[in-house]
Design brief:
- The structure is a homodimer of 227-residue chains.
- With 227 residues, chain A is mainly alpha-helical.
- Chain A has ten helices and no strands.
- Chain A folds into two domains: 53 residues, Homeodomain-like (Arc Repressor Mutant, subunit A); 153 residues, Tetracycline Repressor, domain 2 (Orthogonal Bundle), CATH 1.10.357.
- At the A-B interface, α1, α7, α8, α9 and α10 of A face α1, α7, α8, α9 and α10 of B.
- The first copy, chain A, binds a DNA duplex (18 and 18 nucleotides) through α3.
Chain lengths: 227, 227
DNA sequence: GTCTATATGTGGATAGAC
DNA sequence: GTCTATCCACATATAGAC
């Protein structure tokens, strides 16, 4: 009924967020100009400042839109599994499943832009810009604490600092995999039809992470003595 | 004896490369301006274009300066180990050692800027800009092929595509660890004195990667059937 | 809410003296 | 090789009409 029916079927605000998600993922934050962005969104240049206030605020909005829901989903899955398990502790594999499953399922969701966001997120974990990393860290902190607690219950015999490092490694593997899977040359050697098969990737990734998490402890006493 | 004694003790060209390494690592490529960069190097703004031709060429020079030597060192270590082993195949652990050892030893070398470079490298693996990734991929390709061949000899029973993915995961873990170790909030929980202990980090990382590489094969037939 | 026009700053790059 | 001064493109952001 209104004039907006001519434009793509979203609010301007949403179209800008979608365009930003895609362009930030493709070119990075700095290399994406408001002109490109608003052109792709079918919006006016001034619309970004009207709706978000500034480019930095837009970046923040892009992450807030999806990250809260994502982390809530992860935590809800942990909660559900713990309820099912009753008094028994969750297995490490279950926890890993909750950790990677949400991300990987979003990758299959190419229609709604979830894939763009997931890959953007993977890239941003290692973004050099301090305010951006601080934002991500802040949005992630609650889920991180929740997963740390779950792993501590599942692996009571593992030293705390070792667990933290192994979580760090797992997180890195996931982030890098999400960010670089379709671009790194190494992967050119694998079958193309497997590249976007999230189910297969999840099986591969889970096997790798699970083994790494449960790796025999190195003799850190030896290492420290030698140092 | 000459006037340069007043300036830092290097050629202008070298000082520019050092400053670029540090600033690119701290702020990224786009966010680092030639003005900042030349100021830090104690050089004139025009010097970058005189010595390198353009900012992009400078970026390329920063990587070329160290990456060729790094990969040559990795390959040399593989060669040496294979010679020592004679007819026996190398163990996966030895190959991993050659892979991560070179990077991690450079992290301890804070004096000569090696640490800056290593962290810059970790960040750049997931840089969104195509030409930069292409450059890295090109500089890395020979070493990658060499390591792939070594792993194939060490693990003849592992399917090729599974090996490629596991190398990808290992590479990602290393890259992310190098890039984000001192900044990610998660790590704030660990003992500060351990954070830069390369020997300890190497032990932790090697244990994780080794276990991941040798993880039991997931039943990919099941996964494919279900898909 | 959306548009045009513009203010204001900064970027990379270069010309030409020294 | 190094410097100053400058060109020019493009960035973000805003003012003010519609």
């Amino acid at each position: 009924m209104n004039l907006r029916a001519i434009k793509p079927p979203h609010e301007t605000r949403t179209r800008i967020l979608d365009a930003a998600e895609e362009l930030f993922m493709q070119h990075g934050f700095e290399a994406t100009s408001m002109r490109q962005l608003t052109a792709q969104a079918g919006a006016n240049l001034a619309a970004v400042n009207y709706h978000f206030g500034s480019k930095d605020a837009l970046i923040e909005a892009v992450f807030r839109r999806r990250l809260d829901a994502m982390n809530a989903a992860r935590i809800a899955e942990l909660d559900r599994m713990e309820k099912d398990a009753g008094a028994r502790a969750l297995s490490p594999r279950q926890i890993i499943g909750a950790f990677v499953g949400v991300s990987l399922r979003m990758i299959e969701d190419s229609k709604s832009g979830g894939r763009n966001f997931i890959r953007l997120l993977g890239r941003t974990y290692s973004d050099p810009q301090k305010p951006i990393r601080a934002l991500i860290g802040q949005l992630y902190a609650p889920a991180m604490e929740r997963f740390k607690a779950a792993f501590e219950r599942a692996l009571p015999q593992m030293p705390r600092d070792e667990l933290i490092w192994r979580m760090h490694f797992m997180f890195g593997t996931l982030a890098y995999t999400l960010a670089a899977t379709d671009t790194v040359q190494l992967i050119a050697g694998c079958k193309p039809e497997d590249r976007y098969d999230a189910r297969l990737l999840e099986a591969r990734l889970t096997a790798f992470l699970h083994a790494g998490l449960l790796a025999p402890l190195h003799d850190s006493a030896d290492v420290k003595k030698a140092a």
